[in-house]
Specification:
The complex is a heterodimer.
Chain A: E1 2-4, E2 9-11, E3 16-18, E4 23-25, H1 30-40, H2 65-78, H3 82-95, H4 100-112, H5 116-129, H6 134-149
Antiparallel strand pairs in A: 1-4, 2-3
Helix pairs in contact in A: 2-3, 2-4, 3-4, 4-5, 4-6, 5-6
Chain B: H1 2-48, E1 57-60, E2 65-66, H2 74-83, E3 87-88, E4 97-101, E5 104-108, E6 112-113, E7 118-119, E8 123-129, E9 132-138, E10 143-144, E11 148-149, E12 154-158, E13 164-166, H3 176-186, H4 198-211, H5 221-230, H6 237-253, H7 256-266, E14 268-272, E15 275-278, H8 280-288, H9 297-307, H10 319-335, H11 341-347, H12 365-375, H13 381-386, E16 390-392, H14 397-411, E17 420-427, E18 432-437, H15 449-452, E19 455-456, H16 462-471, E20 479-482, E21 487-488, E22 494-495, E23 506-509, H17 510-515, H18 520-540, E24 559-560, H19 562-573, E25 577-578, E26 586-588, E27 594-597, E28 603-604, H20 608-624, H21 629-634, E29 640-645, E30 651-657, E31 661-668, H22 683-694, E32 707-713, E33 727-733
Parallel strand pairs in B: 1-16, 3-4, 13-15
Antiparallel strand pairs in B: 1-12, 2-11, 4-5, 5-8, 6-7, 8-9, 9-10, 14-15, 16-26, 17-18, 17-31, 19-24, 20-23, 21-22, 25-28, 26-27, 29-30, 30-31, 32-33
Helix pairs in contact in B: 1-6, 3-9, 3-10, 5-6, 5-7, 8-9, 9-10, 14-22, 16-18, 16-20
Classes of the chains: A mainly alpha, B alpha+beta.
Chain lengths: 150, 745
C-alpha cells in the first residue's frame, strides 16, 4: 500500500489552498495519481491559518484589574469574540499602558481576526516593554514571525 | 287650471334645483373635507413614520475605571458623579444616588450598555486613603471587586437646528405616578374620549364667558399633542378646528399608550439659553439632576405644574409661583386619591429642591468642537443633530478640571487682558486627547485656537531636529560651534540667524546646545544634512506643510497648531511610536449598535534608541536648561520638555511630558502682536500650574540594552566621571561612545 499525503494542494479554480486527506493506492500509478490530484484538489475544505492557542503566559502572575481584564480577553478570544477581546485589552492598556502582556494579547487578537499589520505593530510594542521574560519573549518572537508570514 | 299648475311646477323645479345645488355643494364640501383630512393625515404620517423627533447626538467622556490602587481622591470621584445625574443623599443610596461617610463613598450605580458588555446596576462602597482608592465592595454580595467601570458622563450634545433637546422615554419607562398626576391635572377623561371632549369644551366656554377672559382650556391631551407637534400656538378658530381634526385622526391611528408617550416626550418645559428642553425625562435631569424614575411625587408634581406655563412657572426664575402651582397640582392629586391626605400635608411643606442654576450647555466647547471636526469625515451635521448617536471619547473630566484651574491661575501671573491660550493634554501612549481648552475663556464656544490657530513653533522643532541629527550619526556628545553663520537663500537674500540672547557661546556638546536652546549650532548642523532629514521626519507625521524646504525650518518658522504640536511630541514621548491623536473611540447608534470603532493604533515610525537619547536631552532642559524652572518648582521629580519662543516674543510655547500625559501650552495674542513672554517666562509657568493641580507621576526613561550610559563633560564632550565639573550622564549607542577622556576638575 502506498499512501500519498495530498496535503495543502493548490486549487487553480478556487485560487486557494485546500486541505486533502491522504490517498492510498495498491501500487504507485503516477498518471492515475496526477489525475486524482487534479480532480480532487478543488473539493477540499479551505485551509485556515494554524490556530494560535491563546492562553495566559506563565510569567504573567499579576493580579488586580489588568490581570482580570486579561482573563476576560483570553476567554473572549477563545470564544472568537474578537471585538470584545480588543475592548478588554484596550481597557487594560489604558490602566497600565506599559504592560507587555496586554500588547501581546492584543497582537494575538489581531492575528486571530486576520489583521496582520496591526498584529505586527502590537507585537513590536509588547517587545519594546518586555523586560527579559523568557516565555513572553518567545511568545512574541513566535507571534511576530507568524504575523509577518501571514 | 293650467295657470294654477304652472307656478306649482315652477316651485317644484326650484326646490329640485335647490336640492341638487345643496347636494352638489355638500358633495364638494365632503370632497374638500376628505382631501383636507387626507392632507392632515399626511402630515401625521410624515411625523410618525420613521423618527418622530430629531434626537441630538450625545458625547460621552471616558468611563471611569475604579480599582484598588487607583490614584483618585474622594473629592474627585464626587466631582465626576456631580457631572452626571448622580444625586447626593444622606441615607442609604438608591439607584442614581450616592452618599459620603467616613472615608468612603457609597454609590448605587445605574446599568449601562457598553459595546463589550452591559455593566449592571450595583450598590458599591469605594474606600479611600488620602488620594487613593483602597477597596471597592459590592454591598449586595459583600464581595471585594478588582475592577468596576462607571457609566460615562455626558459632556455635550449636538442639537438640531430647532434647538430642541430631549431624552426619549418608552411607555414602560414612564413612572405610573407621573401618568396619574398628569391625567388628573390635564385630562381626566383621557381614556374615555376619542381625542376631543365636547363636554370639556362646553364647560370651558361657559367658564371663559363668565370670566370675560380665558380662564379654562377645553383641550384634551391629544389636542395639546396635536398642537405641539403640528400647529402654531396662535389662537384662532381655524387652528382650533385643525387641532380637533388632528386629535381625532391621532386617536384613530394610534393607541392611547402611544399618544401618552408622545405627549410626555414632546411637552416643552424649559428654555436653557438656545436649547429648548422638551419632555419630562430631560426636564427631570435639568431641574433635579436626577433621572425621572428616581423622582419623588412632589417633584413629579412640579414637572406637571410647569406644563401649563413653562415660563411663568419656571421654578428657578419664579420659585414662589411655581411652589404655589405645585401645591395646587398636589391638591388635585389628593382629590383624585392618588396620594393620601397625610401625604399631601407632608408634601406641600417640602421645598422645590431644584438646582439653583441650570447646568451649562456643552461646558467643554473646545473639546466638543474637535470631536465634531473629527466626526465630520464620517457623519454629516444633520446626522449628528438628529440621529441620537452615542459618541464615546477619551475625555477626562478630572484632567480638564485641573487644566482649567491651572490655566486660570497661570494666566493670572501676566497682566495682559488680551493674552490668549490654547492647551492640549494627550495620553501619548495611545493617542487619546484627554483634555483641551481653545481659549482663555474655557466655556466660551468660539474660535478654536488649539486646532485652528497656526503659529510658528520656534524651538519646539529642536527635539525632532536633534533626532534627525542623531539618526545621521551625531551623538549628544558631538561637539558643535555656536558661531555666526550666513546663508544665501534661493532668492539670493542672506539669512543671518541669531541666538535668542544675540550672543555667541563658542564650542560645546550638542546636549549643551540643546538644553540651552542655542540656535546657531543647530543651523550649522542642519545645513550640513540635518535639514533634509528633518523635513523627511516631519513628512512622516504629516506635519510638513510645504514642499519648499527653507533653512529657517531649522528654527521652527513653520506654523503649527497646538494640536499638531501635540501630535509631533506624541511620537517623541512615545519613543518613536506614532498613535494618531483622537477624540473619538467609538460611535454607536441609539440602539447601541456600534457604527464605528477607532482602535488603538501604534506605528513604529522612528528609531526607539535614538528617540530615547532625545528624551534624555529633554529631561536636561527641565533640569538645567531653559525650563529649569521645573527643577525649582518640582524638585527632584523628573520631567521632560522643551520651550519655544518666536520672533519679537509673539508666541510662547511649552511642550512637556510626565509618565503618561503630554501637555502642550501656547500663549499669544489673536492679532499676533508681541506678548513679551518667552516659552520659559510664559507657557512654562502655565504648564507648571496645570501639572501642580494634577498630581502627576514623574517621567522615566525606558530601559534600552543597545545604549550605554557614560558621564561626559558637557563642554568638551570627553568622557569624565560622576562628580567632576560639568559632567552629565548621557546615553550613547555602543559603537559611538566617546573615546576621548576629559580631565576631571
Amino acid at each position: 500500500m502506498y499512501c500519498y499525503p495530498f496535503l495543502n494542494t493548490w486549487c487553480p479554480i478556487k485560487g486557494r489552498a485546500v486541505n486533502r486527506v491522504p490517498t492510498c493506492v495498491n501500487r504507485p500509478r503516477p498518471f492515475l495519481l496526477a489525475l486524482l490530484i487534479v480532480i480532487t484538489s478543488c473539493s477540499g475544505p479551505k485551509i485556515e491559518p494554524e490556530r494560535y492557542q491563546t492562553a495566559s503566559i506563565a510569567s504573567e502572575r499579576s493580579s488586580g484589574p489588568v490581570a482580570e481584564l486579561h482573563r476576560r480577553a483570553i476567554s473572549a478570544i477563545n470564544q472568537n469574540s474578537y471585538p470584545q477581546a480588543v475592548e478588554f485589552l484596550q481597557r487594560a492598556i489604558k490602566i497600565e499602558p506599559r504592560n507587555a502582556f496586554s500588547w501581546h494579547y492584543l497582537a494575538q487578537t489581531y492575528w486571530h481576526s486576520k489583521q496582520f499589520g496591526r498584529c505586527n505593530e502590537m507585537v513590536n510594542r509588547s517587545i519594546s516593554y518586555s523586560t527579559r521574560l523568557d516565555d513572553l519573549d518567545r511568545a512574541n518572537a513566535s507571534l511576530l514571525s507568524q504575523c509577518r508570514a501571514s | 287650471m293650467a295657470n294654477k299648475s304652472k307656478p306649482k311646477s315652477n316651485r317644484r323645479n326650484k326646490k329640485l334645483r335647490f336640492r341638487k345645488l345643496l347636494a352638489g355643494l355638500s358633495g364638494i364640501a365632503l370632497l374638500f373635507l376628505a382631501s383636507y383630512l387626507y392632507y392632515l393625515n399626511y402630515l401625521i404620517n410624515l411625523r410618525f413614520d420613521g423618527d418622530t423627533w430629531a434626537i441630538p447626538s450625545r458625547v460621552y467622556a471616558r468611563s471611569l475605571e475604579l480599582y484598588p490602587g487607583l490614584r483618585l481622591s474622594a473629592d474627585s470621584l464626587q466631582y465626576e458623579l456631580g457631572l452626571s445625574t448622580y444625586y447626593r443623599v444622606n441615607s442609604s443610596p438608591e439607584s442614581g444616588q450616592y452618599r459620603i461617610f467616613n472615608s468612603a463613598i457609597e454609590l448605587h450605580t445605574e446599568a449601562f450598555a457598553f459595546s463589550d458588555q452591559i455593566e449592571p446596576a450595583r450598590r458599591i462602597r469605594v474606600k479611600f486613603n488620602r488620594e487613593q482608592v483602597t477597596r471597592i465592595v459590592d454591598l449586595a454580595t459583600s464581595r471585594e471587586l478588582d475592577l468596576l467601570r462607571l457609566p460615562p458622563v455626558v459632556i455635550g450634545s449636538y442639537f438640531p437646528q430647532n434647538g430642541e433637546d430631549r431624552v426619549l422615554l418608552s411607555i414602560e419607562q414612564i413612572p405610573q405616578t407621573l401618568i396619574d398626576i398628569l391625567l388628573a391635572v390635564e385630562d381626566k377623561k383621557f381614556f374615555q374620549h376619542f381625542g376631543v371632549s365636547p363636554k370639556s369644551i362646553a364647560r370651558a366656554m361657559i367658564a371663559n364667558f363668565r370670566a370675560g377672559k380665558t380662564v379654562q382650556g377645553g383641550s384634551t391631551l391629544t389636542q395639546q399633542l396635536a398642537k405641539n407637534l403640528f400647529l402654531t400656538p396662535e389662537k384662532s378658530i381655524l387652528r382650533k378646528i385643525n387641532e380637533a381634526f388632528m386629535a381625532l385622526l391621532l386617536e384613530l391611528r394610534f393607541s392611547k399608550g402611544t399618544i401618552l408617550t408622545a405627549y410626555i416626550n414632546e411637552v416643552f418645559l424649559l428654555q436653557q439659553k438656545k436649547v429648548a428642553i422638551h419632555g419630562f425625562a430631560l426636564g427631570s435631569q435639568a431641574l433635579f439632576r436626577q433621572n425621572i424614575e428616581h423622582l419623588t411625587t412632589e417633584k413629579l408634581a412640579l414637572l406637571v405644574a410647569m406644563v401649563k406655563g413653562p415660563s411663568r412657572y419656571n421654578p428657578i426664575k419664579h420659585p414662589a409661583v411655581a411652589f404655589e402651582r405645585r401645591n395646587l397640582v398636589l391638591r388635585v392629586t389628593r382629590d383624585h386619591r392618588i396620594i393620601s391626605e397625610a401625604e399631601y400635608q407632608r408634601l406641600i411643606k417640602l421645598p422645590l429642591a431644584t438646582v439653583n442654576r441650570l447646568p451649562g450647555i456643552n461646558r467643554f466647547p473646545g473639546y466638543l468642537d474637535l470631536v465634531k471636526r473629527q466626526l465630520n469625515s464620517s457623519y454629516s451635521a444633520s446626522e449628528l443633530s438628529a440621529r441620537g448617536l452615542r459618541i464615546f471619547t477619551p475625555f477626562n473630566p478630572l484632567l480638564q478640571r485641573n487644566l482649567e484651574q491651572g490655566l486660570k491661575s497661570g494666566l493670572a501671573r501676566f497682566d495682559q487682558s488680551d493674552l490668549q491660550a490654547a492647551v492640549v493634554i494627550a495620553d501619548y501612549l495611545n493617542g487619546d486627547i484627554q483634555a483641551l481648552v481653545a481659549g482663555k475663556q474655557v466655556d466660551f464656544p468660539g474660535f478654536n485656537r488649539a486646532v485652528l490657530a497656526q503659529r510658528p513653533i520656534g524651538s519646539l522643532i529642536k527635539p525632532l531636529l536633534l533626532y534627525s541629527l542623531i539618526e545621521n550619526g551625531k551623538t549628544l556628545a558631538t561637539l558643535v560651534d555656536d558661531k555666526p553663520i550666513r546663508i544665501r537663500q534661493s532668492d539670493n537674500r542672506i539669512w543671518r540667524p541669531q541666538n535668542f540672547d544675540r550672543k555667541f557661546h563658542g564650542r560645546m556638546s550638542l546636549y549643551q546646545a540643546f538644553v540651552k536652546s542655542y540656535n546657531l549650532p543647530f543651523v550649522h548642523l542642519g545645513v550640513n544634512g540635518g535639514l533634509e532629514s528633518l523635513a523627511q521626519n516631519l513628512k512622516q507625521i504629516n506635519l510638513l506643510k510645504s514642499d519648499l524646504i527653507y533653512p529657517s525650518l531649522l528654527l521652527g518658522t513653520s506654523e503649527m497648531s497646538a494640536f499638531e504640536v501635540t501630535q509631533m511630541f506624541q511620537v517623541i514621548a512615545n519613543r518613536g511610536y506614532f498613535s494618531p491623536l483622537t477624540t473619538i473611540r467609538q460611535v454607536s447608534d441609539r440602539s447601541n449598535r456600534v457604527l464605528d470603532r477607532i482602535p488603538l493604533d501604534s506605528y513604529k515610525l522612528f528609531n526607539e534608541s535614538s528617540m530615547l537619547q532625545v528624551q534624555r536631552a529633554m529631561i536636561g532642559v527641565g533640569e538645567e536648561g531653559t525650563a529649569n524652572y521645573l527643577a525649582q518648582r518640582f524638585g527632584r521629580l523628573t520631567l521632560a520638555g522643551k520651550t519655544g519662543s518666536t520672533d519679537d516674543a509673539r508666541d510662547s510655547w511649552f511642550a512637556g511630558f510626565t509618565q503618561r500625559e503630554l501637555t502642550v501650552v501656547w500663549l499669544g495674542k489673536d492679532d499676533n502682536s508681541p506678548i513679551n513672554l518667552t516659552g520659559a517666562s510664559g507657557a512654562l509657568r502655565v504648564w507648571a500650574d496645570i501639572m501642580q493641580n494634577q498630581g502627576f507621576k514623574e517621567f522615566k526613561l525606558d530601559p534600552d540594552d543597545s545604549l550605554e550610559w557614560q558621564y561626559i563633560n558637557r563642554f568638551n564632550g570627553g568622557l569624565t566621571k560622576r562628580g567632576c565639573a560639568n559632567s552629565v550622564l548621557l546615553p550613547f549607542p555602543q559603537h559611538l561612545v566617546p573615546d576621548k577622556r576629559s580631565r576631571c576638575e
